[in-house]
Amino acid sequence: MWSWGSQPQPARVADDENEEHQTEAGRFKTFLSILRKFIGVSDLASVRFSLPSQLLEPTPNLEYWNYLDAPNAFVAIGTADDPVDRMLEVLRFWFTKDLKYVKGKPCKPYNSCLGEFFRCNWETEDDAPLIDTRALRGNGNVPSSSSSSARSVEVTVPNTGLGSTNSGSSSSVSISQTPPNPKKPVRISYLTEQTSHHPPVSAFYIDCPEKGLHAKGFDQISAKFTGTSIKVMPGEHNLGIFITVERRNHETYQLKHPPAHLGGILRGSLGVTVSDMAYITCPETKLKAILYYYDEGWLGRSTNKVEGIIFRYDPENDDKEKISDVPEEDILVRLGGAWKEKIVFTLGPKPISDHPPEEQITIVDLGPLAVAQKTLPPADQMLPNESLRLWGEVTKAILAKQYSKATALKQELEEQQREKARERDRKGEVWKPVFFEQATHPAGKPTLTEKGREVLRRAQRGEWSLEGPQALSAHQPTDAGTPRQTLAQDRQPCTTGRTGVLHHRQHSHHRLIDIAADRGPSETSETIQDPLTAFRYGPPAAQPIFNTEDHGSVHARNRTRTTLA
Questions:
Q1: Does 416 reside within a domain?
Q2: What is the Cα 479 distance to its own chain's centre?
Q3: Cβ proximity of 536 and 545 under 8 Å
């Protein structure tokens, strides 16, 4: 974390000699002593230093940082026929996307290397309750339903946590209990690549063709240590998540992130809070949501309180930044609750407290939810720059509590990357991303290259090899150990039990935010090798293989067989 800047070499913090006596208290004391050196630094992202391995969570940053903690909430976006209900579906996804913050503890994953990439699938049931508020708003009829296909909102759908009422009314909102295809899970594919080092930026793409959904964006953060907390904010290239619903005339939602704080540093009890404003806009439907996250309460105790509204806005004159800026007659929905617990909504401009409990509809209850498992590529089909393989040996050393070895391996990797950067400088080469067209984009929307599109197409078919099909069996990677061998149980395909249960991964705790400017490159400077050392389209014989081992522009050359370098 905080590993970038202009200094020629990063500052280092020595490992504790007595590795067997690393405790939570000891790690926290070390962490705090490091932070004190950066009080007043305007942006920790401009500072380079390398943390000792005992302070790291043994997981890559790109694996950790994603927005599909509850993938069934994502695939439900666009289901409703009414635009207001679709905005509510997006808000339901918004409150579930960071479930790891609720279920886990703060931690520090590995920083990402330039050109490092991560890919995975989620297999999820299409079981999120249908949101249909048209009857209550008086501008439509709730679709007819029977007791076997729908129930009204006063009945909680077992274990989903994705919508119910507190009590009461049987006529306000219809919730479907029957998913479109309950026997076949929906597949979501994910690809992310570290596209820039200065500034630290990664691009991501989420694809669900079965539901006509995709999402994309750039992740970049800036951070500042105030002495009592770390404030984390979106970086200049992070304009949020862009979700496109293809079957709804390609309407696109832009979800802008609010600032977050890592607090409790002086108390020795770390926790994440969110403050200030978040915004969701859809120009096609002319609907906007404003969410206000309250600051910490008295004596620094967080209430996790959030309130919000949905209202009609003018995309050409989007000047409403606070809830108080919006005229009451434009407010269609009010939301409120605790973002770590339960969120309810009511219809119309009247405050939620003025509505009886039966009119306060639960849009999401995070209590029963758990972070969904990922489906990962087999270890023998990962490329050298794939996150789990790249950091595999460091991970094994940390899990074995061999912290000095882990630090040495990490530093060796860092030096390799710096040497690659120096070599590019000598040759006058400019590094280019492999899966995305641009390292950054002023609109905040990354564009996939043909190789990126092909990776996602293959992932949708459950194909993980990035070589020609005949070459794969003869050319397995051998230069890196099997990643995460001791966590094999954490690499099983997602299994869902009863409807809507999202299973925890088998870690002792879930990773939280990359505490400060950690969404960028590693504690080092550059990359060891571009991701696609072997990637072929079409028949296996004598086809072009895309190779970027020179770290310049992507070029093609002919080979009859491929190997993983």
A1: yes
A2: 29
A3: yes
Name the residue type at position 86: R
Q: What is the pLDDT of residue 87?
A: 98
| 214 three-state secondary structure | strand
d(CA 534, CA 306): 48
What does each C-alpha distance from 356 to 88, 171, 306, 350, 506 come to in angstroms?
20, 15, 19, 11, 41
Residue listed under structure tokens 């790291």: 56
- Whether the predicted model's global pTM rises above the 0.85 cut: no
Confidence at residue 225, expressed as pLDDT on a 0 to 100 scale: 77
Instruction: Kindly tell me if the per-residue pLDDT of 10 is higher than 70.
Output: no
Cα–Cα nearest to 559, from 332, 539, 430, 484: 539
424 Cβ contact partners less than 8 Å away, ≥ 6 residues apart: 430, 431, 526, 551, 552
Pairing of strands 164-165, 361-365: antiparallel
Q: How many domains does the chain have?
A: 1
CB 385 within 8 A of CB 528: yes
Q: Residue 460 CB: number of other CB atoms within 10 A?
A: 16
Cα gap 168→164, rounded to integer Å:
11
Contacts made by residues 100-103, CB under 8 angstroms, sequence distance 24+: 100/64, 100/69, 100/371, 100/510, 100/511, 100/512, 101/272, 101/340, 101/512, 101/513, 102/340, 102/366, 103/369, 103/370, 103/371, 103/504, 103/510
For residue 538, give Cα distances in angstroms to 371, 454, 541, 543, 545: 37, 11, 9, 7, 10
Say how far apart CA 217 and CA 192 lie, in whole Å: 10
- For the chain, the farthest-separated pair of C-alpha atoms sits apart, in whole angstroms, at 72
Which two tokens mark 220? 């970049």
CB 464 within 8 A of CB 535: no
Token pair recorded at residue 133: 């508020």
Is 521 a domain residue? Answer: yes
> Is the pLDDT at 477 greater than 70, yes or no?
no
The CA-CA-CA angle for residues 10, 16, 22, to 5°, reads 120
Q: Report which of 182, 176, 173 is spatially closest to residue 150, judged by C-alpha positions.
A: 176
Spatial distance between the Cα atoms of 320 and 288, rounded to a whole number of angstroms: 9
Structure-block tokens of residue 152: 């009204």
Give how far Cα 311 sits from Cα of 102, 280, 339, 442, Å. 28, 11, 20, 27
Residue 412 phi, psi (nearest 5): -65, -45
Cβ atoms of 194 and 228 within 8 Å: the answer is: no
User: Would you give the distance in Å from CA 246 to the centre of its chain?
Assistant: 21
- 536 within a domain of the structure (yes/no): yes
Instruction: Give tens-digit pLDDT for 376-426.
Output: 999 999 999 999 999 999 999 999 999 999 999 999 988 888 899 899 999
| Residue 250 included in any domain | yes
* Structure token pair of residue 148: 């076997």
